[in-house]
Amino acid sequence: MNTDILEREVQYLKGVGPKRADAWAEAHGVRTVHDMLHFYPRRYLDRSTTTGVRDLREGDAATVMGTVQSGNVVPGKSNKRFELILEDAEGQRMKGVWFQGLWWIRNTFEVGERVALHGTVQKYGRWFSMTHPDFDRLSDEAAALDTGRIVGLYPGGQAMEAVGLTSRSIRRIIYRFFKEHGLKLGEPLPDWMTEQYGLMEGRVALRAIHFPKSQEERAQAVQRLKFEELFYIQLLLAITRHERQEIAGPTFDPPGSLTTQFATDVLPFELTEAQKRAVREIVADTQTGIQMNRLVQGDVGSGKTVVAVLAILQAYDSGYQSAFMAPTEILAEQHANSLAEYLAPLDLQPTLLTGSQSKTEREAALASVAEGATPVAVGTHALIQDNVAFDRLGLAVVDEQHRFGVMQRAEMFEKGDRPHMLLMTATPIPRSLAMTLYGDLDVSKIDEMPAGRKPVTTVMRREKQRDDVYAFIRERLQAGEQAYVVYPLVEESEKLDLKDAESGYATLQAQFPDFNVGLVHGRMASDEKDRTMRAFKAGELDILVSTTVIEVGVDVPGATIMLIEHAERFGLSQLHQLRGRVGRSDQQSYCILMAGYKQSAEAKQRLAAMTRTTDGFEISEEDLRIRGAGDFFGTRQSGMPELKLADITEDTDALETARNAATALITRDPELSDEAHAALRTYFDRYYADQSMGFLRVG
Ligand code: ADP
Ligand code: MG
Which residue intervals define the domain Helicase C-terminal in the entry (predicted)? Predict the structure, then answer.
């Protein structure tokens, strides 16, 4: 394909020039023809999508087209407003009302011009009206619409308008471009793909999204372009996945005597179906001779550790050691303890490796790892330090994998001969997102809780109920249970938060004089923090007050109460993680959300979701819905290519299709060296391959 035309700068196109080009680039990042062609209308107007005033219904979102009759600033009870009176083709009138920006809006409209208002219909007396409607001033559109055409309206803004880049002029520029150069636009996708997935030709789709002849044609164009957006991302993932599949890994034997003995004699419970499935998948992966990269995704408390233990035993039965890496010392110790319990009946012992061990402890640990005396080394980052040498490392388990970077995992690789990687995460991610975020990994999902768990009871309480809340906590403490009290951490004001947590700590000490109250916060030295956490774990403290430093994965089964102060300030997934600290035994646990009276709409939704469900996957779907994909990715996954049409949360089917297409392509032609894929390769390399690797961090 002729990529030169795509890379041409828009300023050299007819009707643009340097001033407009600057504004376009500044406002919307449009610099090249490629950018311009993918600068899509934000809305379309045609007769079928507009409503006559006569047919308006209160509460509906509608678009009304009409002629400006008058526009006046009128005094109101409390403040002034601007009222625009619009008359539609049938002579029916309605109002557009603005309370803000009166003087600017007053100078925007001219009497007699055609305008389209978009907004929610309200009714006051006999007048239909819209408050602060989105609007478009129609010039040549009006005539076009009268002849039944569909007209695209583009994103604008004051800077764009200042240089005359209105919907109208943008349409002209693009129209002219298609007339002169349209035929030079090539097709990046191979024929077999457009045929197999019933996709509109690329050039046709680009033209149709700007100038659709019908709503059907527009829908087809959107489908094709949406597919393409998702496809390139999936291709990136498919390539990574493919490259990984070339990497040889240790070949394990089928589960042997240790595994059997463990399953029949040691395991105090029956595995859930989801756990069994994960185990089967791991067993299958590790026998192929190809290095495994599997993510075990399961909500807090779903029992991921046992799955890892079974993999560790299979490795040891096959003559390989394992490494088990956790993000903090506390977690590492906790894992070492539970592994010790699991392995003792088999006469095996894990070895703990942390930064805070004494020199002699450490030397003994290093020796047992190096000699192969231990089946598994459990530790923090200390595991990947230079002086740690395994006799024969075959499996690396990484708990809370999102806390580690790729580099640390790469170093794990170097410790053995490309050990199998078993990554574990308790951050539930909606399926659609998982396909993208973890698209280069194989995923086992543990979507079932062990039998007999009591879901945590979650309630919202207000300040005036505080006494009742304390009375309830006192009752539980008297029964020998423990409580967490968590204060939010707002990044801008670490000091203030500390004050919050510290004064909360003082209050609780005063309120609960016969109980032991401890405090941990982010500014404490880590050994002091650890000491307090350990005391809580050991039951020496009854209440633990903290800012959000309590670690993901910390397991204190005796804790049954999670009191979250200023709950409206926490994100949904954070609230869910915090709630996961309780409900870790067969005792009934409680999560109490202390919420302020002032809550944003989103905060209300978050708190409502928390009281409605304890299902982590449902929570994460809800979180994604509330925050939108951009934000969900934004913080954790910058570098994700921009999606203009596709919505990762909604377009699950399209995502699946794109994924299948990418996999099919890479299976056929892994290097994209086939002549039929040359155009795709050029396009992909230029627009995706280089710049998008950032978001693959997770893999
Ligand atoms: P997580 O997935 O959060 O890491 P853990 O592996 O720590 O969860 O397991 C949580 C608790 O559930 C542990 O005490 C573990 O022994 C227990 N457990 C795991 N699987 C089962 C099961 N199938 N039936 C009953 N209890 C289980
Ligand atoms: Mg865990």
Answer: 465-625
Instruction: Return d(Cα 246, Cα 266) in angstroms, integer.
Output: 37
- Identify the CATH assignment for 49-148 out of 3.40.1190.20, 3.40.50.300, 2.40.50.140, 3.30.1840.10: 2.40.50.140
Residue 305 Cα distances to 422, 453, 455, angstroms: 11, 17, 20
Q: Give the β-pairing of 376-379 and 351-353.
A: parallel
pLDDT winner (highest mean) among 145-154, 314-323, 422-431, 571-580: 314-323
Q: Which atom of ligand 1 is nearest to the CA of 338?
A: 16
* CATH 3.40.50.300 domain extents, the chain: 257-446, 457-613
Ligand 1, atom 12: nearest CA belongs to which residue?
A: 303
User: Which residues are CB-contacts of 378 (< 8 A; sequence separation ≥ 6)?
Assistant: 323, 324, 325, 326, 332, 335, 336, 339, 350, 351, 352, 353
Measured from the CA of 272, which atom of ligand 1 is nearest? 23
CA of 461 to the centre of ligand 2 (A): 30
* Rounded Cα–Cα distance for residues 168 and 171 (Å): 5
Structure token digits, residue 198: 């019933």
Cβ–ligand 1 distance for 304 under 6 Å, the answer yes
> Ligand 1 in contact with 310 (CB < 6 A)?
no
Nearest Cα residue to 295 out of 618, 633, 699: 699
Residue of minimum CA distance from atom 16 in ligand 1: 303
Closest to 133 in 3D by CA, of 145, 116, 156: 116
CA 236, chain centre distance (Å): 18
Q: How far apart are CA 63 and CA 186, in angstroms?
A: 36
What is the average pLDDT across 488-495?
A: 57
Which residue owns the Cα nearest ligand 1 atom 20?
Answer: 303
| Centroid of ligand 1 to alpha carbon of 272 (angstroms) | 10
The CB of 581 under 6 Å from ligand 1? The reply is no
CATH topology of domain 457-613: Rossmann fold (3.40.50)
Give dist(CA 483, CA 504) in Å, integer: 14
Least confident of 433-447, 453-467, 547-561, 629-643: 629-643
Tell me the CATH class for 257-446. alpha beta
Q: State how far the alpha carbon of 577 is from the alpha carbons of 389, 444, 454, in Å.
A: 35, 20, 17
Distance in Å, CA 330 to ligand 2 centroid: 12
CATH 2.40.50.140 residue ranges of the chain are: 49-148
pLDDT over 70 at 72, yes or no: yes
Our answer on whether the CB atom of 305 is closer than 6 Å to any ligand 1 atom is yes
Ligand nearest to the CA of residue 306, numbered in listed order = 1
